[in-house]
Amino acid sequence: MDIAASPPSQARPAELDTLLSSPDQYTPEAIAPLEAYVAAQVQNKQYDAAANKALAKLYQFTPSRCQDAVLAQVLAKALCARPAGDGYNLLYIVPEALIERSPLCKRLAEADALLEASKFDEFWKSARAEPSFESTCPGFEGQMRRGLLDLLSETFQAVPLDLLSTVLGCDAAQAAALAKAGGGPLAPSSGASASFKPNAQNQQRKEVVEKTVALTSLLKLYDPEEQIFEAAPATAE
Amino acid sequence: MEATPEDYLVNQQIKDFVFDLHDASRRSHIAEDLKRLYNLEFKDLSDKYCDKAPWPSAPAVSSQCIGNDGQPDAYFLCVYKELVYRHMFAKLKTSLDDKLNAWNNYCELFEFVLASEDASLELTAQWVFDVLHEFVYQFQSFCQFRCQNAGRNSEERMKLEAAGDAWAAPTVLRYLARLRGCAPTGGMAAKAQARSPLHFYYATFASVCLSRAECLLGDYEASVQALDGIDVFDEASEVSRIFGCRLNMLYHLGYALMMLRRYRDALRTFDPVLAQLARAAKHGGFKAFPDENQVQKSYDRMLALYACCLALAPGHVVDDGVMYGIRDKYGDKYRMLERNDQPTFEAMLAYASPKHIVPSIPDYNQPLNASKDAFHQQLRLFNGEVAFHARVAELRSYLKLYSSIGIEKLAGFHDEDVAAFRARLVGAKAKMRQADYRKVGAELSTPQTAPDLHFYVDGDLIRVDEPPKNASHDTFFTHEMLKYDTFVAKALTLKPKPPADPRAAASKSEDRD
Q1: Any idea where the domains of chain A sit in the sequence?
Q2: Does the interface predicted TM-score (ipTM) exceed 0.85?
Q3: Would you call B456 and A89 a contact, using CB atoms and an 8 Å cutoff?
Q4: pTM, entire model
Q5: Which of A5, A55, B3, B202 keeps 20 to 30 A from B272, CA to CA?
Q6: How near does any CA of chain B get to the CA of A237, in Å?
Q7: What is the Cα–Cα distance from A44 to B115, expressed in whole angstroms?
Q8: For the domain A15-133, what is the CATH superfamily, name and number?
Q9: Domains of chain B: total
Q10: Cis ω on the peptide bond leading into residue B498 (within 30° of 0)?
């Protein structure tokens, strides 16, 4: 079972960098280089949220130039980036008509809602129906699983194997093997549950007692003119 | 110079006004004169002479604005035409030709501003804001007009098709972005660095108007990013000194943050301005503010958005005045919001949202009315979010009551079986977490996540953590020490009355003896 080791990197070529920081990013001529960049992201397993959003905006301005396949790839990439809000940011921008006309895009949009509602069974079923999300965007399942494991590790210290297999969309044997091996946020464990490495989120928080005082708040009290210590009285003659 | 035939038809007072305006903005640069001419005289003359008809066209008054080279000042005439169109759109009925001509004028005007040679024209800050504000407003209304294709006659259709790129979204955004980049934005230091105060004003207000335009298009991230470099809470900055601008900016910023699900940030954005308006509302209304109706409308809408955000992210400390305002206006509705009643959320949002636009150029041969599509799309997406939140809110209300509770018990409260409930817990914490960005802007460097409830699952038990109590006694003590210091200092300045001399009293009594 494939689990991505780390979130995808971003390696934006220099010309695209200049394009995206100039006013020219809104012109229709920018569509072609941005589409090519999406293809590069898919191939090299990278992700660039800003560039994809710029492309979605251009599709909003000129819907006739929208390519369903590219839109599907953009949406799939954004889904992998959860819990960052890229998915619904795109859905706000791209007109519904464009999403509705492609069944694949529609499934991707609905998948976002399924994950929000924690309906993992249905999510994986939708993800694997033809054409599968993995075929649209290779590495999708691995990235998705990574994100979900991180999510689990935030709430649970240990998770029963059946929940693990539901959330990760894999069968019991794979889940057991994963739990045993550990890796990522998982600590190797045996038995009926997979345990997570302790992190800041799934442990009791230490009580923070402020034992320090900021110097700036004390400076208000300090008056240079004031004689705090009395000068030694002049010795009487 | 030769008087043109149109000259004779123009009223002398209007001619004088145009001459003065040209002089003040081109040559004398006296701010007081410009302010008076723009704010007061223009309105007076409009009411007196141009109530039912537009102002004279540019060629008619061109003899009043002769530039240094002996020719009519084309740049100033563009500015004048913008004033004329603005008056026309506000007071009179406009035709498609007017809308298209206004577009051409804006293009010319902005090209003049962006060209680097001419930096001697000066306008007031309010004027520049009004120009850009009107620009975005006309863009918004043209998009809506463009999309209402049902029942359009063929003549209009042909004109629209011939107009091609007029009011096209990419061009509009491009102008705003270029204007924003024509000078550095920021405080007084940036103003000194800009080519001229005019360019500084254009850059600053272009940021604000770009933020508004992006919000109308649905790109909320870009809307927040557009205000990078402007301190939105600084009440002394140029944007805050023009009340209409401040109101507009904070409304769109708060709305964008709310759609981005950053409820805490949205609440913090609305706090200062709503507190101010709530105080004014309590003490007799908005008469002290310019454009009373607009302020009232904005206040109502912002209050509605504030109530929605409060219901979605409880735990925010609300100013008393604002809370009073909410209960006064939306008392019943707020109670429903607290109970996560979906239709109330829909209604509030439908009332308070800005009018989103469909920016694409439609096929004019299709008799469809697509203007409301974008608006409905945004509403639908946000309503989905409200539904997700409702599920989490239930969980939160139970967790607040316990320090630890078994999963089966809690699942029983929710009428769900344990496995499904566990699955539900997976996403719940992420939903409850509200990133609290210290700085409202695109610099999302170190978000401090601030869930008001921290819980984790240990085996079969959910343990709930109390939020850490940050007992900071230092503020209390320093405050009291300062109070004491000021009291002592005051006491030392008092001259004590000398006590009555006992010997004098005794001698007096001796004398009488």
Answers
A1: 15-133, 139-201
A2: no
A3: no
A4: 0.84
A5: B202
A6: 31
A7: 42
A8: ARM repeat; domain 1 (1.25.40.250)
A9: 1
A10: no
